[in-house]
Amino acid sequence: MADPTFEFAKPLPAELLYRRTDPKDLPFDLCSELPDAPVEIGQERAAEAVRFAMRMRAKGYNVYALGDAGTGRHELVAKLLHDQAGTEKAPSDWCYVNNFDDPQKPRCLSLPPGRGTGFAAAMKGVVEELRASLPTAFERDEFRARREVIDQQFKQRNEEAFGAVQQRAEAQNIVLLRTPTGLAMAPKQDGKVMEPEVFEALPEDQRKAIEHEIESIQGELATVMRQVPQWEREHRDAARELIRDTTGFVVGHLIEEVRARYADHSGVPEYLDAVERNIKENAEDFLPQQQHQASAPQPDGAQPPPGMAAAIEDARFRRYQVNVIVDNGGATGAPVVFEDNPNHQTLVGRAEHLARFGALVTDFNLLAPGALHRANGGYLVIEATKLLTGNYGWPSLKRALTAGEIRIESLEQMFSVATTVSLEPQPIPLKVKVVLLGPPQLYYLLSGQDEEFPELFKIAADFNDRVERSAEMTLLYARMIAGLVRREKLRCFDHGAVALIIERTARLAADADRLTTQKRAIIDLLHEADQLAADAGKEIVGAAEVQAAIEAQFRRGDRIYRRLQEEIARGTIRVETSGTEVGQVNGLAVMSLGSVGFGNPSRITAQVRLGRGEVIDIEREVALGGPLHSKGVLILSGFLGGRFGASRPLSLHASLVFEQNYGGVDGDSASGAELFALLSALAEAPIKQRFAVTGSVDQHGRIQAIGGANEKIEGFFDVCRLTGFSGEQGVIIPASNVKHLMLRHDVVEAAAAGKFAIYPIDTVDQGLELLTGIPAGEAGPDGNYPPGTLNHRIAARLDAFAEASAALMRQALAAATQPGPGS
Amino acid sequence: MKGLIERIVVPLDAASENRAAIDAAARLAHRWGAELHGVFVEDNDLLHLARLPFARQVSIGAGVERLTAEEVERQLRVFAARARIEVEAAARRHDVPWSFEISPAAAADAALTRSERDFLVAGTATRPIGRHFRVETRWWQVIERSAVSYLLVHREWATTGTVVTLVTDRGADAERVLDAAAQCAEAVAGILTVACPAALAESAGFEQWLADRLAAYSVTVQIELAPEEGAALLERFAALRCQLLVLGADAVAAQPQWLRQAAARAAHGLLIVR
After folding, report:
1. Cβ(B237)–Cβ(B164) below 8 Å
2. Are the C-beta atoms of residues A63 and A45 closer than 8 Å to each other?
3. Contact at CB, A159 and B46, closer than 8 angstroms
4. Could you say which of A166, A177, A229 has the minimum Cβ distance to residue B49?
5. pLDDT tens, position by position, A333-344
6. Does A192 touch chain B (CB under 8 A)?
7. What gap in Å lies between CA B11 and CA A274, rounded to an integer?
8. Which among B62, B126, B131 is the nearest to A158, CB-wise?
9. CA distances from residue A305 to A616, B57, B196 in whole angstroms, order as listed
């Protein structure tokens, strides 16, 4: 439905080219007078969805907040989550501790918020106390005496056994020799081993007696030797038992203190029991290194190097530490965690490694939490695009949400390709609400392609990209701008500046009656205007700074645009802005380069000849045209057939092309212009080149709305300014695009001054009449068009093509049926 | 003894715990600016045994097994090579010149003491079997024949404890003993205990004589009255946490058994000054 305040095919009044926000309508002079706007302004539907998801405790009610970047999704979600989280209790602390039965599988412990660090400190205190008190206990005379008795018993047993063998040997004049690897026996003569020659000279019975005796003593010695390992084992066991007894009292007392404070927490008493047992079994670790080695000497008396000694000492006590991976001490509510780098490791945590003497080692103390640990019991916010492009972040998140637990494992473990022994920490139960922030396209893609996605993300929070430009919303936007100015700590903006910013948000929405929700673009504009005000030494930012900032934004990115304009003005790119041409019309395309979009005029030409009814899209033939453009061209065939094909065959061949287009074209916004060029060629009616045309057309000849109307108009306007305004130039647009117009001020001023005009049309005929100055003509009851009209000329041309075609057909038929020679 | 000693000689073999002796020798070589010389003395007894038809050895790991001359020689070569490496390492550690030789047992005396400027350092502990049982060292016989001063070592060098010396008169020999003891005390903990008979300790000018002898050394001197009876004297040394006992050769020449007991009582060892 067209706006009643304008007429078709007549210049639009200037007030319809740009919808102002009158600063006088804003109830303030400076934005500082305004309170902040609600954060969910324009996003009530999305906010409701998020709130609903937060109330839902059932599994799978996670949220996908779909909307374009910069629409304030992050801010709104953060506020809603923080508001809710503040009303909830802080979740438990989580710790990893050693599993003394299987150190490869660390155990997790849950403690009330803030008690994890206390527990870790208590265990550290136990170890420190043991390191001080156990050596003292071992230094006491009572212990030393008992130890000496044990050692002495072993030594005595050893010496007695060997001594008895030695005595027997000596009694038989046999000497015991130390060989490099054992003991040997030989007959003695003059205090030395009997030389072989001497032995050989002995009578045989004497030799045999010596051999027999030595063999017998060797047997005894072998018996003693066989017992040595057993004696050593008994000695070690006795020494260990003594140490265990001595340790038991000290450690039991210390562990009991910890037990009294943490006994109520699940898993802690069992853990403390295991610690106590382990300390008793490894009490020697608490002896100072020297003392320890004295009780268990290194082979050959070798000492480990200093660095290794420190590492060994450190490793001895690491197993009693408590690794607090989640500490909610000081938290006042549930956590809200934003993970900026979501990948497998940052989400589910990781086992870090230390380089020790050329090897990478790990233990439960090196387990590091992921975002899921930190958010457990609360909320986790992730950018969906980063999640899907992060290193296995998405599969890991789905796995955790599906299983309801966080399992720290490497990717190799996850994919079962690990060949080395690694940690398998006990999984931690997961209770978290995940909010993904992402573009709508990704949401639809995931919904369609990922079976698990709908199960895990049942709530879609759909963010608006624009809101209605009502008086109420305008004021809310003014408050939002005021809030952003405060938040960003900028200079105060006056009401003129705020009004202009609101107008700019309408332009960014490409709609005079809507405002964009692209908050990021607004913030950028605020900052840039503020800087310009600072450059000018102003304390208050006015409309002039905002306007200058808008123009500067475009100017920074308009190098290509200016180059194209320049080449049009120099005639390199041929675009006529005056005169007439048959089969040629100025079309308009929009180019988007980075942050800048601009309109680019281009000649569209058509040629017709006798043919079989085809309309050829040259862009499509050379693969420069996209599918939507091809669709638009095919619609032209439909239009021609519908209007002129009922009573005659369409015996034409038409070709259409965007002249000097080398970069491809898509969209159907030029289909109207292409039809005008085609009809001009058919009617042989010249088109006024002072016009540019945009708009798509349907098969009935109705002109339809297109995108980028503002940029297209401004593009042709700039070309006309370069070639010189004639006062007759203008752009023909679909009437349904009038409500989208938020044109530059210079365009509006030129229109008001009668230098330039925008013509809304609703039908092809309206456009044809404007472009050619010839009445289009309406078909009479007989289906014929009045003579002198464009449609009559077109019909006549098509009739001529049809007759010519028929004549050719007859000639061909006659030639085919004429008898040949000899027939 | 600095300047008087040119070579510290360490007898080494496959049966002894050589490392402590080598380390002590290297320390002394560094202190006295002498050369460290290792002599690996072949064990004739072992070689003779291996040539006997019934030669066997018994070990904890392998039980009773045949012992051949080839096997013994091979093992001795391995131990000699290891001893050489240890001598070299100790020499590098203490930055002293070093040399090494392998000597047949018959030529051991000549290899161990070539001049009066040699000093012997011998390990008295053999490698134990079953942690505690040790056969007697071969070096007693060598050092009892030695014409030079020697140090008997049976544990790693430590920097705690005291150096104890026994002085019975104010003669030249006593001065040499005091000189050696003071140098050793400087290298240990700086404490020198001079044990002497009551008559000597109470004789006029003794303390001054002692102070004059020790003026060149930074040691703390303690005078201790020595019991006359040998066993009591050894008890007293142990009570003093004696790290090293320094004695004159004359004091022990007639009492080889007491010497062995004294060496065992000193935590580190026994230094005999000739």
Report:
1. yes
2. no
3. no
4. A177
5. 999 999 999 999
6. yes
7. 54
8. B131
9. 86, 36, 43
Contact B131 A228 (CB under 8 A): yes
pLDDT, one tens digit per residue, over B69-112 is 898 899 999 999 999 999 999 999 999 999 999 988 877 777 77
Query: Taking CA atoms, what residue in A is nearest to B126?
Result: A178
Dihedral, CA of residue A371, residue A377, residue A379 and residue A382, to nearest 10: 20
Residue A352 forms contact with B (CB below 8 Å): no
Looking at the predicted complex, does its ipTM rise above 0.90? no
Q: Enter the tokens of residue A756.
A: 């330039």
Closest to A195 (Cβ–Cβ): which among B19, B48, B64?
B48
- Lowest mean pLDDT across A221-235, A310-324, A664-678: A310-324
Which chain B residues contact residue A193 at CB under 8 A? Answer: 44-46, 48-49
Q: CB distance A183–B129 less than 8 Å? A: yes
Q: Per-residue pLDDT tens for A728-766? A: 999 999 999 999 999 999 999 999 999 999 999 999 999
pTM above 0.90, yes or no: no
Q: Which residue would you say has higher pLDDT here, A659 or B269? A: A659
pLDDT at A289: 59
Confidence (pLDDT) at A312: 58
CB-nearest partner of B48 from A181, A196, A219: A196
CB of A184 within 8 Å of a chain B CB? The answer is: yes
Q: Mark yes or no for CB contact A179/B132 under 8 Å.
A: no
Residue A1 has pLDDT above 50, yes or no: no
- Is A214 an interface residue toward B (CB < 8 Å)? yes
Nearest to B255 by CA among B225, B229, B236: B229
Secondary structure percentages of chain A, helix, strand, coil, to 5: 50, 15, 30
How far is it, in rounded angstroms, from Cα A772 to Cα A679?
A: 11
Count, residues in chain B: 274
C-alpha–C-alpha distance, residues A180 and A716, integer Å: 105
Q: Which chain B residues have a beta carbon less than 8 Å from that of A218? A: 56, 58, 64
Is it the case that residue A296 has pLDDT exceeding 60? no
Length of chain A as a residue count: 823
